[in-house]
Amino acid sequence: CKEQTRVVDDNGFNPVWEETLSFTLHMAEVALVRFLVWDHDPIGRDFIGQRTVAFSSLMPGYRHVYLEGLTEASIFVHVSVHDVYGKVSSL
């Protein structure tokens, strides 16, 4: 699955999206979540940074996702998981 937020104009240092992206996972134990950050301006798009995280290691709640290769650069996200099916419970 792939989703993209809208572009935030004229706020490169502290953009706020306030968007919700939802996904349906069929094999959560092997799923990866990749965050890509691009600078979008009239000249074109420039790659800023990225981070790939195993879905199983994403804890619910507000989190800073630090971008690889950049000192102190992160995006602030809220993670929530709903309707987990297929869980085997021990009796």
UniProtKB/TrEMBL annotation:
- Coiled-coil residues are none
Q: Which domain of life is it from?
A: Eukaryota
Q: Where is the C2 domain?
A: 1-69
Any one Gene Ontology BP term: phosphatidylinositol metabolic process
Gene3D superfamilies in the record: C2 domain (2.60.40.150)
A single MF term (Gene Ontology) = phosphatidylinositol-4,5-bisphosphate phospholipase C activity
Write down the PROSITE patterns for this protein, in alphabetical order. C2
Cellular component terms, GO, for this chain's entry? cytoplasm
PANTHER family xrefs: 1-PHOSPHATIDYLINOSITOL 4,5-BISPHOSPHATE PHOSPHODIESTERASE ETA-1 (PTHR10336:SF51), PHOSPHOINOSITIDE-SPECIFIC PHOSPHOLIPASE C FAMILY PROTEIN (PTHR10336)
Q: What is this protein called?
A: C2 domain-containing protein
Organism encoding this protein: Amphiprion percula
Q: What does the record give as the organism's lineage?
A: Eukaryota, Metazoa, Chordata, Craniata, Vertebrata
